[in-house]
Amino acid sequence: MTEIRSEFIEQAKQLTRNAEVLPSGNDGGIGELAAKLQYAHDTQKPLRIKLGMDPTRPDLHLGHTVVMRKLKEFQKLGHKIVLIVGGATAMIGDPSGKSETRPALTKEQVDKNANTYLEQMAKVLDVTDAEITNNADWLHKLSFMELLQLAGKVTVAQMMTRDDFAKRYAEGKPIAIHEFFYPLMQAYDSVAIDSDIELGGTDQRFNTLLGRDIQTAYGKKYPQLVMMLPLLEGTDGVVKMSKTYPEHCISLTDSAKDMFGKLMSIPDNIITRYFSLLTDVGKYELETMDKQIETKAINPRDLKMKLAHLITEEYHGKEGADKAQEDFINVVSNKGIPDDIEDIKIDAEINILDLLVKLNFVQSKGEAKRLIQGGGVKLDGEKILDMSLSIPSGLNKVLQAGKRKFAKLV
What is the pTM of this model? Predict the structure, then answer.
């Protein structure tokens, strides 16, 4: 066996920061990854790095960027990023981690969301240098016999080792047959694009590892390695970041002010985790931060301010981050009201819940209720606790929702 050179071992060590490589082996998969990196260099054949995206919602959030930043690392080393738009798989919906069958999307929804995804991914990756494909191009062309042959390469027992399927079966909840095809289709993508490494969140373990099995079944001598990236918690510090919980989600489409403010609201115990997963801050600096927080040698608020500025600057530029920080200090630290507060004309009496939704301060009445229950809605500084409150026209008062959203009702 060819000896692996130190430069590729070092590359592998860097690439495995925050990542779990499968199969891992005694060295955490570093040796196998280094061997692939060296082979790619020696043969002048860049590795093909796969990421599948089911555009189920139009917005990406900071949680998605954990994987995207890893793709960028491979891209900087000269490897080929292959982005697979799930034109076929999104019509089934990934059942991973779900307690019930997910609704399928139409082709029009997939196409619209995919275009939005790529625009947002361009904030992190060089999408112009990526290979962008749609798995509908090959999956929709499979004949019925070819589909049966693919299905014949996996047993029902294998499928039932997935936690979500096993749990739903034990609880007597329905599992539709077509849901078994989702991981099969995702795995077949690895055959279609001949991937060397597949990236995914830790909730994709079964699907990505199945890709190795299916590649082997179709004759690939050295199947793909799998790199699992952590799922980032939302601003509550508990549940993974998701558009399902918009009040705890930081979208890439958020304004600089909202992004900065949301980052300032994260719990102290996940500050260094956000630094680790969302910035280029090194291991030594992270360890120093942990010690400073533990010994109370620094105010966690100061670290959050640095974090918020770093991340906001990445997506909105230095000027946007500076302005967002200035606004935050004025509004939160000095208990002020933003200079650019918008005048909103109330033409007719309206319920407070409906008003909050109408102003896009919240996405639903349910979220509005939770915000009011938590004391997060104020009128001229006074908390609103009555969810049946009607807001008349010509009020001429400032409505505040949370720490960052204001409107002058006129």
Answer: 0.80
